[in-house]
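Reminder to self: tokens first, then the designed residues, so the page reads top to bottom the way the pipeline ran.
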């Protein structure tokens, strides 16, 4: 997938569609929006496209004895901290390791997602009884960017994580989008929707709704053309 579109090019498009002079987002001349409105809408739209499409993913896990980016978990550890850049979890797996140095995986298990209510009622001691490997994980009682393992591991191991992360911070400096070129139009439609939904003289609900439909179409088209192997694996 090509990633060649920059924030300045997107801002030019947004300026053209809102009848603003095109200058790569250097300035906004009308009083309907500010430059911050354009930049903020573009950043929000990019992250929403990444979340809704699930096509741009990051993997943390075991690659080789010398390359292991998995999240280490100690025996009895219930709470696991996740990357601060995480938007959405696609898959969590448990990697069991041997006692060599560096450790080598000897097993790997997918961990299904569950909610705390189900665990409390169906597996009463899920927070205290250790098991190797853990059975599941839950986010429903965890703070942001943390998960709880059910049940805590009985031995040391690693969390293998596949997730959607936030995109590059966009401004008007020529930063490439973290979205493949096929999804750029979707980002632009969503950013335009946010601009047209701003309360005040810029508000235009019918056109904002039109932009929303074009955004959804782009997300669906991008999924169909690129495919969704990771999302399908995560959600069955």
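Designed residues (236 positions):
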């Amino acid at each position: 997938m090509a990633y060649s579109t920059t924030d300045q090019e997107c801002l030019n498009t947004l300026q053209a569609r809102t009848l603003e002079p095109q200058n790569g987002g250097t300035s906004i001349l009308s009083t309907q929006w500010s430059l911050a409105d354009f930049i903020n809408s573009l950043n929000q739209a990019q992250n929403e496209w990444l979340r809704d499409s699930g096509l741009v993913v990051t993997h943390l896990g075991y690659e080789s004895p010398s390359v292991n980016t998995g999240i280490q978990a100690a025996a009895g550890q219930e709470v696991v901290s996740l990357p601060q850049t995480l938007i959405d979890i696609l898959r969590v797996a448990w990697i069991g390791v041997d006692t060599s140095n560096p450790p080598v995986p000897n097993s790997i298990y997918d961990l299904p997602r569950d909610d705390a209510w189900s665990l409390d009622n169906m597996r009463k001691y899920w927070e205290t009884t250790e098991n190797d490997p853990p059975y599941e994980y839950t986010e429903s009682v965890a703070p942001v960017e943390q998960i709880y393992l059910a049940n805590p591991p009985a031995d040391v191991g690693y969390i293998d994580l596949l997730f959607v992360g936030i995109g590059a911070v966009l401004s008007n400096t020529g930063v490439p989008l973290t979205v493949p070129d096929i999804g750029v139009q979707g980002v632009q439609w969503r950013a335009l929707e946010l601009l047209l939904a701003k309360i005040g003289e810029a508000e235009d609900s019918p056109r904002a709704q039109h932009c929303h439909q074009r955004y959804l179409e782009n997300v669906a088209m991008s999924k169909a053309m690129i495919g969704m192997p990771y999302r399908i694996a995560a959600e069955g």
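Residues 205-226 form the longest helix (22 residues).
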